[in-house]
Amino acid sequence: MVVFVLENVKPVLRGELSRWLFEVKAGVFTGRVSALVRDELWDLIAQKLDHGSAVMIYPKNCEQGFDARILGNPSRSLVDIEGVLLVKV
User: Fold this and answer.
1) I need a surface site. Which of 7, 52, 71, 86 has the fewest CB within 10 A?
2) d(CA 85, CA 79)
3) Chain segment 22-52, per-residue pLDDT in tens
4) d(CA 38, CA 25)
């Protein structure tokens, strides 16, 4: 399962993501796609992000069971402390 959270992006980007994922709330997309499709969607978001921000959370074989990536200038940031991801406000 993958989760994307988008802020301040153009509606066309949300429309393109909705072809692959379920938009559970404005800007919050989730679904089950292959790692290849997930990475292609992340590349698409990076290309069309403009002044917005994006967070991707996806499964990873580690202690927390997931990893995350951030693009743009989100209101929060992720900090990796000895392999554990924490949210910095």
Assistant:
1) 86
2) 6
3) 999 999 999 999 999 999 999 999 999 989 9
4) 19
pTM of the model: 0.88
Amino acid at position 25, single letter? K
> Which two tokens mark 78?
């992720």
If DSSP states are collapsed to H, E and C, what string results for the chain?
Answer: CEEEEEECCCHHHHHHHHCCCEEEECCEEEECCCHHHHHHHHHHHHHHCCCCEEEEEEECCCCCCEEEEEEECCCCEEEEECCEEEEEC
42's tokens: 């992340």
Compute CA distances 26 → 3, 31, 58, 60, 61, whole Å: 13, 15, 19, 26, 29
